[in-house]
Write a structure and sequence with these properties.
This protein is of the alpha+beta class. The protein is 28% helix and 27% strand.
């Protein structure tokens, strides 16, 4: 899932923002993780070098724990051991992502499916290199897709503690948490910030955002949604809409950056886990606002699989989420927003 179509409109926040008193300073942390970038803006309880260092160290520790748990690109992660070696012993981060994926699979009637990892690998969007895809190959893989192939168990350790196990009914069944892990990461960092007493912050990991409180200007946080056209590879350069959020998660999924052309045909990274094929429809991007970034992440992926008409029906019938959908109508781009979406469209 491509979520690099977000641009945080934080008005070039710097260490001591204009109008902020010394003890109300906002700080930023930027870096790379999980094969993408992260951008964090926060106001510590006390503005000082030691406060900044404590927050930075906490963020780095969380990112490292997540990388060694659910990253399919880390050869030493729990996920790699689970997929490649069949080791059923998992940690809490893995279990959290698994249970969130199970819940999302249930709510989406299987259209969101973390067990579709073999399909993503087959099409060249997963942890392995894709190849020429045939119907026979898809059929052979589909039999191992579905969260019902997995179940949670536990084992008593020698010291009396419980060891968490996730069993699978066939070693060819695999998991890929890419469609939810970065939203989870933003939520986990946000939870740590709240635990540290912070009330105003924005956490963005790979485009998945959670924002609490207010920005340095004392207003809601603003997030720009890029115009979803092929070739728009610079976040923030061409904005289609601006969304305002507070105490919410926001994630945008789109197919205009993560795709490839095969025999003149665009192959999207949004794959229907029921058919095994990349989707073909007019929905170009789906921005979801939800109580947290994990939920927003899952639903953004789900809506992109559905296409515009069905996605709109889901949003209108779901009180948990709001959405901004950008779709093609002939040669034009159109924007649809749910009634509760607080956003400004900046173009057609």
């Amino acid at each position: 899932m491509s979520k690099d179509n977000l641009f945080i409109l934080a008005a070039a926040i710097i260490m001591a923002c204009a109008g902020c008193t010394p003890d109300k300073r906002y700080y930023t942390i930027d870096g790379t993780t999980q094969g993408t970038t992260f951008h964090i803006v926060f106001q510590p309880q006390i503005s000082s070098d030691s406060s900044f260092a404590a927050v930075r160290d906490s963020v780095n520790a969380i990112l490292e724990r997540i990388d060694f748990s659910v990253s399919g690109y880390n050869k030493e992660s729990v996920l790699t051991a689970f997929n490649e070696e069949g080791n059923p012993h998992v940690d809490k981060i893995f279990l959290d992502n698994f249970l969130a994926s199970v819940k999302m699979a249930e709510e989406s009637l299987g259209m969101f499916d973390a067990s579709a990892a073999p399909l993503f690998d087959l099409w060249g969007f997963g942890f392995r290199t894709g190849t020429e895809v045939t119907q026979a190959m898809i059929d052979s893989v589909l039999q191992f897709v579905g969260m019902d192939h997995f179940h949670v168990d536990s084992l008593k350790a020698g010291d009396g503690s419980d060891s968490i196990l996730i069993q699978r009914d066939d070693p060819r069944c695999r998991l890929n948490f890419n469609a939810i892990a970065q939203g989870y990461t933003s939520d986990l960092i946000a939870a740590k910030f709240s635990e540290m007493g912070m009330e105003n912050f924005l956490v963005e990991v790979g485009g998945e955002v959670y924002a609490r409180g207010v920005n340095p200007k004392g207003k809601f946080w603003n997030v720009g949604i890029d115009r979803p056209v092929d070739g728009n590879n610079s976040p923030g350069k061409d904005i289609q809409a601006v969304v305002h959020i507070q105490n919410q998660g926001l994630v945008t999924s789109g197919d205009y950056r993560k795709f490839y052309i095969k025999d003149g045909k665009k192959i999207s990274h949004s794959i229907n886990p029921k058919t095994g094929y990349p989707v073909e429809h007019n929905l170009l991007s789906a921005t979801v606002v939800a109580p947290d970034a994990t939920i927003a992440d899952g639903y953004a992926t789900y809506l992109m699989v559905l296409g515009f008409d069905k996605a709109r029906e889901v949003v209108e019938s779901n009180e948990k989420i709001e959405a901004l959908l950008i779709f093609s109508d002939g040669d034009s781009l159109k924007v649809w927003m749910s009634e509760g979406m607080d956003a400004i469209s900046t173009g057609e």
